[in-house]
Amino acid sequence: MGVILSLFINLFRPTYTPTLYFPTQPAYLLYRKARHSNECITTSLRDVIEGHCRTLLEEYRPVWWLPGGHIQTGYCVVGDFSTVDKVDYDRKLLRLKDGGTLGLDFTPPASERTLSEDTPIIVVMHGLTGGSHEAYVRSIIAPTCTPVEQGGLGYRAMVVNFRGCAGTPVTSPQLYTGGHTDDLRQALMYLSQLYPEAPLIGLGFSLGANVIARYLGQEGNKSRLLAAAVLGCPWDLVKNSERIEGDLFYREIYSKALARNLLKMLRTNAAHLSRLAAPHTPTAQALANTLQLKSPYLKDFDVAWTSVAGATYPPFPMDSADAYYEWAGSAQHVHNIRVPLLCVNASDDPIVRDLPIEEVRQNGWVCLAVTRHGGHLGWFEKPEKGDREAKGWFGLRRWVRKPVLEWFRATAEHLVGEQREIPELYEQGGWIVERGRESLGFREVEGGGKVIGVEGEAGLLAGL
């Protein structure tokens, strides 16, 4: 009787082990047996994950007092993370050919320690209105860039702050959207010139995850990223909008909060945008219309601003927010990704609706891990006894940092990436450009300086 009862309980109790979706036909990777070794084997993405990312094969149980996706997501906002995962940065400013400026935050700072030229670099894209100060960014960057002798990976990291975010100066009549990949593309060109021997590994959160996934699909085997991980990627913006705008609770809580942050960010940069946008242009009119909005929903903001002034060139201005969502989604690009990509989503994420399971199954370069719990960029768990990483309120830590750090080590230190055909960089009229794509280009400009990672923009659902 006891055996039958045990089997019954095991059959119906919830499982907390992440569900892993692998491709039906694997792609094969050239993989070093050891870091810096010339001895290689041919293996599959599944073998790499099962052999080196063991955390994805084990249970993730959220801490008991943060049981659901809404609460996990909410704790991302109200939790005090100012005393944990401290990260300081050196900021570099890049001027782009279109007149815009990128704020690139590097850690560890040059004054803190010197790393070799071939040290792996984690390239980070943050969430909707965030920046390098966000707690979820620091939670992974801190152990990644901690010296090996102190238990970290000893890597370098660079956070690409969206235009107008985290104090990045606005020098063109354009901010950013979830579909634009050129700013990431030019930041990677800069890194390739600065550290030509360093493997570049992408890390994206939420909207930044969408940008990285789109970039990988657009570039195919020309990606400057050797591999990437994307967390809480929204994938299908049309279906996400239907969920957030079509339900009263989601509309009043999430849609309004996200729009409030976007409107705050736009108002912060409004004076510069007004000066830079020529009168009577779509951008100038969109700015005036959007600044008049009172307590808008997310779609209201995207109708007034994003779909119109997302860029000063085609396909903008667009006819509707839905047209922008259709264009910007990353799920449609999954089939063309040609470098290893680990995707982690939570099934109780209140912001992300549909996941590209079928698309993943058809691409040997992509694995999707879905946790039962975790919310949007939460994944809080109870720390193990004696865990020095867990500080702050009630000693929580983010579970997701463990598989991501395993993924970094598995790819940055072992993956060869022989299938890539990376375009040449050269100087043209004072700009560094990429052969075959000369419309893009950058040059470093004065400014930047020190950035203290825990000092950022506060606000409801900031960075999500």
UniProtKB/TrEMBL annotation:
GO MF annotation: an example: acetylesterase activity
Gene3D superfamilies, per database record: alpha/beta hydrolase
Pfam families named among the record's database cross-references: Abhydrolase_1
Record bears the keyword Heme: no
TM spans (from-to): none
Source organism, top-level taxon: Eukaryota
One biological process term in Gene Ontology: medium-chain fatty acid catabolic process
Domain AB hydrolase-1: 120-382
The entry's keywords: Hydrolase
Active-site residues, Swiss-Prot/TrEMBL: 206, 349, 376
The family this protein is said to belong to: Belongs to the AB hydrolase superfamily. AB hydrolase 4 family.
PANTHER family linked: ABHYDROLASE DOMAIN-CONTAINING PROTEIN (PTHR10794), ALPHA_BETA HYDROLASE 1, ISOFORM A (PTHR10794:SF63)
Protein name: AB-hydrolase YheT
Organism expressing this protein natively: Neolentinus lepideus HHB14362 ss-1
